[in-house]
Amino acid sequence: MTSAFREDPYESESAASTNPQRPAARPMPGPRPMPAARPMPAAPTRGPSADQTQIVLVGRAGGGKTTFLSAILDGGPDPDVYGDWRAIVPSAGSALIDELQASVEEQRFPTATVEAATETWTIRGEYRDRVRKRILARSVLEPGEKLEFELVVVDPPGGNFLAPGTTGILGPLADARGLILLIDPTRMIPAAVKERTEPGKELVATFRYFNRLMRGLDAKLAEQGNKGRLPHHVAVCVTKFDDPVVYAEARDAGLVMMDEGRQPTVASGDPAKAFFELLCRKSVGANDARIPEIINARFRPERLEFHVISSIGFYIDPDEGFDEEDSNNVVGDGSIRSHNPINVWETLIDLYESIRSEQ
Ligand SMILES: Nc1nc2c(ncn2[C@@H]2O[C@H](COP(=O)(O)OP(=O)(O)O)[C@@H](O)[C@H]2O)c(=O)[nH]1
Ligand SMILES: [Mg+2]
């Protein structure tokens, strides 16, 4: 493929990631670390639904926004670590919810978003009872805390991020407390880009989406009187980790470990950040190498989090468990074999907690 990048945002998306190349086996280090302990908050003083935390998903066309939402709708986080959480959608339903539900039931990816959807979901959670050590070395069981917040779901076609000033998305983005910034590695890793780009089509560089979004957001907030860095809490997420090309890249960089023996993962925090930086540095789009430094300059470092996620996860055989030789979760026509999302709910809850810790 040539290195020319085109302006048209609506490049075609390959439906399935089916790379026949199998990565070589390599031993993986120990179990997943527990997330850093958060201070136990005092009993909430406000009514549960008073929390209007707005979190918005941001990412290029085909980057995995809608599929991320289907994993939120269809699942929950690891209950041993996070307790019980679920998403409650408006009872009136919507075209987006219908499509997400149909895609889950039919074990396929949601269809490409054509019309921007903006709706509010309620995220409700209850942490497990926690054992706390008190003075005099006595262990005390504290009841798990109940939480509820609003997730403002803005799911525009990714192309809207190329012209943010005219497509009405800057308002919700400027109002949001949290951004989930999806980075699609299959539009960066040369082998993946080559495999997926149709002849005659050129790739819109990730940097173009990112740069226009940043400039638009900066301008909008400056109009509202913001000085200095952007105020958002940001979860930077490398998506599609289950894709064989993406997995191989992370594994070859020595960043993969087994998640409690279940399936491979890249730990959130420094390892995920290292993978994100490596992808930007090696990307087919030379300008993508600048994305990490721009993120560091635009947002406050203590409000940045890094995750490597997959909205579908790897294929896990119900009897045999994970087998690298048979781990491709997307087959043939784009059917999804099993539902094992990695770090999707965890990203959402961690981001919410990061916002809440400053409220
Ligand atoms: N392997 C894999 N592919 C994914 C994943 N999420 C999205 N995709 C692929 O990317 C395509 C676009 O995803 P979508 O969620 O519609 O992206 P959006 O345009 O950002 O909403 C899907 O049709 C899938 O082919 C994932 O977690 N794993
Ligand atoms: Mg979409």
TrEMBL record:
The highest taxon in the source lineage is Bacteria
- Compositional bias of type Pro residues: which residue ranges? 26-42
Region annotation (Disordered) ranges:
1-49
Q: InterPro entries this protein is in?
A: P-loop_NTPase
Name of the molecule in the record: Uncharacterized protein
Q: Identify the species of origin.
A: Actinoplanes regularis
Source taxonomy: Bacteria, Bacillati, Actinomycetota, Actinomycetes, Micromonosporales
